[in-house]
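Supplementary notes for students who missed Thursday's class. We covered one full example, reproduced here. Read the sequence, then the structure, then the short commentary at the end.
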Amino acid sequence: MSGAYLEWRRVSRGDAAPHTSSMKLALLILLLLNPHLSSSKNTPASGQPQEDLVEQKCLLKNYTHHSCDKVFCQPWQKCIEGTCACKLPYQCPKAGTPVCATNGRGYPTYCHLKSFECLHPEIKFSNNGTCTAEEKFNVSLIYGSTDTEGIVQVKLVDQDEKMFICKNSWSTVEANVACFDLGFPLGVRDIQGRFNIPVNLKINSTECLHVRCQGVETSLAECTFTKRSSKASHGLAGVVCYTQDADFPTSQSFQCVNGKRIPQEKACDGVNDCGDRSDELCCKGCRGQAFLCKSGVCIPNQHKCNGEVDCITGDDESGCEEDKKNKIHKGLARSDQGGETEIETEETEMLTPDMDTERKRIKSLLPKLSCGVKRNSHIRRKRVVGGKPAEVGDYPWQVAIKDGERITCGGIYIGGCWILTAAHCVRPSRYRNYQIWTSLLDWLKPNSQLAVQGVSRVVVHEKYNGATYQNDIALVEMKKHPGKKECELINSVPACVPWSPYLFQPNDRCIISGWGREKDNQKVYSLRWGEVDLIGNCSKFYPGRYYEKEMQCAGTSDGSIDACKGDSGGPLVCKDVNNVTYVWGIVSWGENCGKPEFPGVYTRVASYFDWISYYVGRPLISQYNV
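Structure (token representation):
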């Protein structure tokens, strides 16, 4: 296929210089204000230079654990304009166990409480079950020279006395949560310190507690406490919490988004040293045993194949069935930062409920979408090297937009009654002239699966610029059939709408399809498709008129697969590791169909997730972070 857009009118390429100069000046100012953004000459323990691990351009976006472009929101949050915002408590699933908060108030479920805490951070989880006046969880520090440090003591709700925590179950993860709980928003500075422990203090192995946190908690009360009958000797867990006046040399430190400074060698090691995860979200590689997500995020290696998707790209749970089985066993060895290797034994007494299991259960109750997965079992076994005719069921999200007597553009079905297409393909005033043809293969010889839908309205992006093709995106709402509440497209499957620009990367292989012309301008009547690669740094092909946030380039090295006139509005779709198809781009514009130095340009759909959801409704397209 050599198909999918209008012919581009050549414009002057001399207007790029002022924009480039201003960008360089802005970057220079940012580097002067943020020393950690400049390239460091030191070489961390991994032997890989600092600048090889951290993506400087990404750092400018100030991503944190609340940035849903990079991470999943918690079940009591929702993704709004790239940020995890608080849900209202009534938006939580109603099924669950009652819990008690530190204000003495009971809540119907853990999600309800966490949603309330999201809005009122001073109110935290206390215990599972009902509230009583006597039952209070408490964490404190003793034997420290200041109130920011010391040996950790906890009083569990159903225990009469305060108890210590075993050092070998203590890591940066748990220490961060303890400092958050104690009112230090920047988390931990160190888990080693010189504490004034009395010489005569003796704690045997059964008198200290083991604790396990996931790092998403705000109180140690949410972590799981156990008591073990191990005969090994245990030291006591201590912590030094971070304060704004902490003394770190700026030239040898990484500055977190929250203002905290950490040693440079702790960035991209899978450990949340910053407390807001900003040290792990802009990585090109990972130190040690950490796992690198395709989205540029480093996660702890033990989170790979643990049954929960931690990478937004899903690659941490791909192709690892055996690893999942191995990680279930209680004999799994865990090496904690700052501690010794611990072998969990069967003789373990659970002292608190597992609220992490409850968090996962809440996630399982959130609405699920069925998109991006074909209903048929047709599998293509031959590798595709050029444009090929499509077969029934190959691209069930592909639609044709018919204007009068001609099919002028393509479109993508995204669910309900909604079609996504290019703004230059449609006009709101002409909506009565349009028809949506679904399940069409050949428009000269219509197949039996073909269905024709009328159009009730057209929504063109308010900032669409017909001269530059910025914001070249539009929505078409199909008419409902009489007596029907929704549009029922029997042979169609919606493509998933991406919410993050990091789901797919340059060099990922994707598919374009449409009825556009061949490179020699010959008409094409049958639906054709071809594989293309996503291309980064496309400004070198189209200087001064390629806008990275709004546009995506794709093509092949020899230009043999391309989009061309007549394919406009059609899909550029990409599959994730779980074979779920996302509409990554909308065929928009380009020059000289089928030439390698002129790749096709597509509207980058992920940048318009909130715009699309405003019109179609978030539940229709929110695969995650509902």
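Commentary. Confidence is low (pLDDT under 50) at residues 1-50, 328-346, 377-386. The CA atoms of residues 151 and 238 lie 4 Å apart. If anything here is unclear, bring it to office hours.
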